[in-house]
């Protein structure tokens, strides 16, 4: 049995269509009336969009119902599905906590409420009765003001028992006018000891080399091997990892065919750059992590040797995985020796 790690999954896009539709049927008369039948909701929710911005608008649909009161409901179902259907041993959940606060409050009150949201997500993750190691990545947002984004970084640093890293989300085409500010936010995050990833080089409009020095992992990053492969040696030397989310690029119109990712994987492997295969928004796609693997293999975008290397890289670059090695090694020791504790528990890298 292979156990997996997903390093890039958004809380807003993690709710599978059936769960979200049932929630609307029970608690949201407006959405229930708009989609009385499940199949029409699934078609609306999972269909491809023309652009990344259009695709990201769907997050607002889920953010509006992921309140402090309902978050345990969604977290429980997320982890249940991840354990039962995806064999996940490790999951990093990323989201913008400010967008789960009460919009009726003023800014300072919403910033204060972010801490409650983070604790709720953290405690719900621990109480889900499924043996998955989880960590939160808090997303700063390209459309939020500097004050809020800095507060998100502060919250991440203030709550290390729940948060394992920081991100910048909101569509990478919107970074250009605020690039100096975003660089400053990442410098501040690093100064507070935070681990970092960021949505860059996802689309042709999101190529910002100025951000790369501040990132430990690169959210998507596929435009580097596609458009600027000369940078790959620098990424390898820095030990950076690309978080590749295959289905996303079809849903956003970034790529026309998954086979186009073969160039990404081949060039990364040739240059020694680690890649982790992730789901990004498993609910919006209705595609779970094992099917991402299968789709890549079926389309000949990757081979089994490369797939295994990506699976191992995911654990190696996980921000909160507490062990030196992936779970397959621990399981093998347990089966052969009956003593999994012979494996050192705490990671040293």
UniProtKB/TrEMBL annotation:
What SUPFAM superfamilies has UniProt attached to this entry? Metallo-dependent hydrolases
Entry keyword annotation includes Calcium: no
Adenosine deaminase domain residues = 5-320
Which BP terms from GO are recorded? adenosine catabolic process; hypoxanthine salvage; inosine biosynthetic process
* Signal peptide per UniProt: none
Q: Which domain of life is it from?
A: Bacteria
Q: Which GO terms describe its molecular function?
A: adenosine deaminase activity; metal ion binding
Q: Per the entry, which co-factors are needed?
A: Zn(2+)
The record's Gene Ontology cellular component field reads:
cytosol
List the Pfam families.
A_deaminase (PF00962)
Query: What Gene3D superfamilies does this protein's entry cite?
Result: Metal-dependent hydrolases
InterPro entries per the UniProt record, alphabetical? A_deaminase_dom, Ado/ade_deaminase, Metal_Hydrolase
Record key words, sorted: Hydrolase, Metal-binding, Zinc
List its EC numbers. 3.5.4.4
Record family assignment: Belongs to the metallo-dependent hydrolases superfamily. Adenosine and AMP deaminases family.
Q: What is this protein called?
A: adenosine deaminase
**What organism is recorded for this protein?**
Rubidibacter lacunae KORDI 51-2
């Amino acid at each position: 049995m292979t156990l997996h790690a997903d390093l890039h999954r958004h809380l807003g896009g993690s709710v599978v269509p059936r769960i979200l539709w049932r929630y609307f049927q029970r608690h949201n008369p407006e959405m229930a009336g708009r989609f009385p039948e499940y199949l029409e909701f699934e078609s609306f929710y999972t269909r491809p969009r023309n652009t990344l911005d259009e695709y990201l608008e769907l997050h607002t649909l889920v953010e509006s119902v992921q309140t402090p009161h309902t978050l345990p409901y969604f977290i429980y179902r997320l982890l249940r599905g991840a354990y039962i259907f995806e064999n996940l041993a490790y999951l990093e959940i990323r989201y913008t906590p400010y967008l789960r606060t009460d919009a009726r409050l003023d800014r300072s009150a919403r910033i204060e409420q972010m801490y409650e949201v983070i604790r709720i997500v953290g405690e719900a993750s621990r109480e889900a009765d499924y043996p998955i190691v989880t960590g939160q990545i808090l997303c700063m947002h390209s459309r939020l003001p500097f004050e809020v984004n800095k507060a998100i970084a502060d919250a991440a640093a203030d709550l290390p028992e729940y948060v394992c890293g920081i991100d910048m989300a909101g569509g990478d085409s919107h970074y250009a006018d605020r690039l100096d500010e975003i660089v400053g936010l990442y410098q501040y995050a690093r100064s507070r000891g935070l681990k970092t990833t960021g949505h860059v080089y996802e689309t042709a409009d999101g190529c910002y080399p100025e951000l790369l020095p501040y990132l430990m992992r690169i959210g998507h990053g596929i435009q580097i091997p596609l458009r600027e492969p000369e940078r790959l040696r620098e990424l390898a030397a820095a030990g950076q990892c690309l978080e590749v989310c295959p289905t996303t690029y079809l849903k956003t119109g970034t790529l026309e065919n998954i086979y186009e990712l073969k160039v990404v994987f081949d060039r990364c492997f040739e240059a020694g750059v680690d890649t982790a295969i992730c789901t990004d928004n498993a609910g919006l796609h209705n595609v779970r992590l094992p099917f991402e693997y299968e789709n890549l293999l079926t389309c000949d975008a990757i081979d089994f040797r490369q797939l295994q290397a990506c699976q191992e890289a995911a654990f190696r670059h996980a921000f909160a995985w507490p062990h030196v090695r992936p779970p397959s090694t621990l399981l093998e020791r347990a089966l052969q020796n009956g003593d999994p504790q012979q494996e050192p528990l705490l990671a040293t890298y």
